[in-house]
Structure formats: structure tokens, C-alpha cells
Amino acid sequence: AVLKEDDGSLSYVKPLERLEPFDKVIRYISEQESNQEKATPIKYAQTQNDNLRNEYSSLFEDVPSDIPFARIALRKNPEAVNFWLGNSLSMTSLHKDNYENIYVQVRGQKHFVIMPPVAAAAVNEQSISGTTYTSTNGDEEAELKVEDLKHTLDEPELIVPVPTWDPDFPDVRSTPYSELVKPLRVTLNEGDMMYLPAQWYHKVEQSCGDEGYCCAVNYWLVFPDLAPFPFAALYDMEFGGSFWASNAFARDIARAVNN
């Protein structure tokens, strides 16, 4: 998420990661959903490293191994199948991914705000410092408290290009072009599936059912232009092909007109 510091500067903050027993996590998430007045750290279970075929492999047999129409259209099997579990307090700030995404809702609802790559001039993309939440409590077994969390600069320093405009707060960090964008708002119910194209901006929230948690699975596929590039190089890959060139052009034009 993009966070405004006391001095007015912006930081891109990544979550604290830790390993916990699954039954403990799902109980915490459900209890937090039913008691939101108490200020407690917001937890969710997710990694974007093909976790459903690795860390959560025992659950993988409960979902399709791939999505046939996507496999046929892109001529590729999924590069990653990712599992997400959380509650309505979790929110993903506006961002874009380098992968074609087939998003499947299992429990609860997901609420998307979506904009195409040509909205680059509206999202006020800035290059800001990357930071990560850490715990000041050295006891890994102790329950996390809000007051124990702080974010510190990544080492080595990481500068991250991210959208800083939020379509739900249109007057904050807007550009002259923000008012011209008409975001698409989509709600996925249980059993719904959505194709989210690579490089499309999206913000995600959720609401829970009686279970007190929300669960989803997403399938990441490489666009054909990127077929030669391995999943391991996701964040370092050299983009090629007209699709990526046109997106880079839109981003560069956006920076030029907003500076």
C-alpha cells in the first residue's frame, strides 16, 4: 500500500510475513471479522509464488489444475496457481500485474475497481521508496499487536513505480486527467470467474459470508509475447512484443504530461 509519512513523503509498504499454523490463522481471520471494533493487525494467508501447488498442495485437488479456455487462448499452462484467504478488512491498493490473471471466487465476495493501461495519465504513478512492516517484538511465537508493527526502508534500497491515486478518493493525489477516467466496478460472488488482463490497473476489497472469511484462487498465465521468459524472473524479466511496447509508451506519455 502507499503510505503518507509524517514529513509528507510517500512510501510503498509491503506486509510483514511470518509462518503460522493454518488452523490458528483461519480462526484469527474469522474472529477478527466478527469483532472489528478491536484494533488488531490484519492478517491474510497468501504468497504469490505458486503456493497452491506447493505450500497449500493438500488443497490443490479441490480446484481445477487449469482453466481450459485460458490454456487454449494463451497456449500456456498456468505459471502459478495462488491461494488467498482473508477477511473484509484486507484491501489491495491500486496496482497492475505482469501476468494474465484468471480470478476465481470460492467463498465470500471480491469487489474490483478496474482501469485499462491507457488510464496511466490518471493514476499518478510515482517512483517511491519500498518499505516493509517488521515487528519490534523479537518473540516469533508471541501474538502480533498493532503497536509492535513499524515499517522500515528496504535494504538494499528499492525504488518502486506505483500508482498513487485512489479512484475511491478521487481528490487525493489526482492528476488533471483523473476525472476523465471511468473505472469499471465488478463484484465476484462465490463460483464466479473473471479474466483480468495483464497490465490492467485494479484495486480489490472483499466481503465475507457466515464463515467469517473470504477465499479465492487465481491462475497466472504468461502472455504469448512473454513465453520465453521463466516464472522465476517475474520481477526482472525483459519485456518484448507490441503489447508491452504500447503499455510502456502509454506510461511514458503519462509521465511527460504530468511533469
From TrEMBL:
InterPro entries: Cupin_8, JmjC_dom, RmlC-like_jellyroll. Pfam families: Cupin_8. Gene3D superfamilies: Jelly Rolls. PROSITE patterns: JMJC. It comes from the Eukaryota. Residues 52-238 form the JmjC domain. This is Clavaminate synthase-like protein.
